[in-house]
Amino acid sequence: MDRVSADDLRRERFFHGMPGPHLARLATAGRVVEFPAGRRVFEENGTAESFWVIRSGTVALDLHVPGRGPVVVETLEASAVLGWSWLFPPHRWRFGAVAVRPVEATRFDGPLVRTLGATDPELGYDMALRFGTVMLDRLEATRIRVLDLYAHPGEPR
Amino acid sequence: MAPVPYRVVAKRAETAETVTLTLAPVGAAIPEPEPGQFTMMYAFGIGEVPISVSRTRPVLEQTIRAVGAVTGALCRAEAGQVIGLRGPFGTGWGVDEARGRDLVLAAGGIGLAPLRPAILRALARRDDYGRVAVLIGARTPGDLLFEDELETWRARGAQVEVTVDRPAPGWTGHVGLITALAGSADVDPSRAAAYVCGPEIMMRLTAQALAGLGTHPGRIRVSLERSMRCGIGWCGHCQLGPLLICRDGPVVPYESAVPLMAVKEL
Ligand SMILES: Cc1cc2nc3c(=O)[nH]c(=O)nc-3n(C[C@H](O)[C@H](O)[C@H](O)COP(=O)(O)OP(=O)(O)OC[C@H]3O[C@@H](n4cnc5c(N)ncnc54)[C@H](O)[C@@H]3O)c2cc1C
């Protein structure tokens, strides 16, 4: 697994505008990883100890629905962030994740990033805001999907 | 302006509720439409509705979703039947003006129909454009329009990405809102022109996402729909703020659409 540098992180939209010293500390927690298509990244209910910034490929988030098997709720593409359960107790995945197209990503060591944030609250706050923004965007997208914009006008909703 | 008689020469079911009609003039033809323009389609004895052109050449095609009396009648038209056309009306996407640029064409639902002539025009003159990305959002895989053409578009040099709200078993494509695909478009946003067509909320969010990635809002165009009657700027039925959509639209720059998208239909 290759190490990453502050410059590697600076190129990612997720880290846009983050001060250099913060990037340098976060880079110590990051490694480049790859997943072939079909490989499960994590299992629903498993221990959440990482997050990934996707460089290329596609990851599907899924949930096991009894009688239907794993149902995909959303896919994540290049530059998206995968995983936020590492940040919040009880640190367990609420969804599963599987690579649907070959993925290259930077994997971050969650407990180490939590420690970095606890020892430098400025970094911790910055990361919490960035993850908050990701969650806000996904919440908005989910709410819009609930509106079922493409439904037939005559259909009961 | 009297409707010009056109014969349905072919009919293709796109989805359970959407058909594409191939039309040929019975006598004189209407002028060739520009990508983005629409005609007033007349189902004789029932009524007339604005429908975008979904192919301009070598044949005229229009793609219709049955939502009410007139669209329902048009969707039931069979090969051989005669309907009326007035037009073409309205503003086009301006594909020719965008020569030399990368293109992003983002469609939600039936919105792919008005964009299809722009896609076909750009792919017919592939060397005139930089990279071409087609982003498509649909409700389910079964609601996808022109599904058997997407491979051809890819083969002719377009990146085509499809996302659905609800995947069916076996679906291996994207799942989620079309806005999430904006970042996957393999274009240089700063030199791209973007055309967005679909439900208004979809157009607003997609245009915001594209602008957020660096595409100039003046080069993002959206297609506004309001109910229409005359099609030629007389009756005022489709007035939206300072615009008569039949004449000044349907395609307008996103910049001028922003304040109008908040105006509720009368
Ligand atoms: C410029 C322009 C281009 C258009 N292009 C196309 C096209 O390419 N293909 C196509 O299928 N339709 C298109 N439309 C929409 C089409 O004109 C309407 O669906 C049609 O007028 C409905 O008439 P109707 O008599 O069948 O239904 P109505 O009885 O008038 O309405 C039936 C139901 O449909 C709803 N409805 C009406 N208009 C719309 C609309 N625009 N969008 C969503 N719901 C609507 C009504 O609220 C009602 O619930 C376009 C509209 C405009 C203004």
Q: Would you kindly provide a written description of the structure presented here, covering whatever features stand out?
A:
The complex is a heterodimer of chains A (157) and B (266). Chain A is α+β, with helices and mostly antiparallel strands and 157 residues long. Chain A has a single domain, classed as Jelly Rolls (Sandwich), CATH 2.60.120. In chain A, helix 3 crosses helix 4. Chain A is globular. The model of chain A has no long low-confidence stretch (mean pLDDT 95). Chain B folds into two domains: 86 residues, Translation factors (Elongation Factor Tu (Ef-tu), domain 3, Beta Barrel), CATH 2.40.30.10; 163 residues, Nucleotide-binding domain of ferredoxin-NADP reductase (FNR) module (Rossmann fold, 3-Layer(aba) Sandwich), CATH 3.40.50.80. Helix content of chain B is 20%, strand content 33%. Chain B is built from six helices and 15 strands. In chain B, the strands form three sheets. In chain B, strands 10-9-8-7-11-12-15 form a seven-stranded mixed beta sheet, sandwiched between helices. Chain B has a six-stranded antiparallel barrel with strand order 1-2-5-4-3-6. A two-stranded antiparallel sheet of chain B has the order 13-14. The model of chain B has no long low-confidence stretch (mean pLDDT 94). Classes of the chains: A alpha+beta (157), B alpha/beta (266). The interface between A and B is medium-sized, with 25 and 30 residues. The structure holds flavin-adenine dinucleotide. The site of flavin-adenine dinucleotide has 23 residues of chain B, from strand 4, strand 5, helix 1 and helix 2. Chain B: GO terms for molecular function: 2 iron, 2 sulfur cluster binding; flavin adenine dinucleotide binding; metal ion binding; oxidoreductase activity. Chain B: Keywords: 2Fe-2S, Iron, Iron-sulfur, Metal-binding. Chain B: InterPro entries: Cyt_c3_hydrogenase_gsu, Dihydroorotate_DH_Fe-S-bd, FAD-bd_FR_type, Flavoprot_Pyr_Nucl_cyt_Rdtase, FNR_nucleotide-bd, OxRdtase_FAD/NAD-bd, PyrK_electron_transfer, Riboflavin_synthase-like_b-brl.
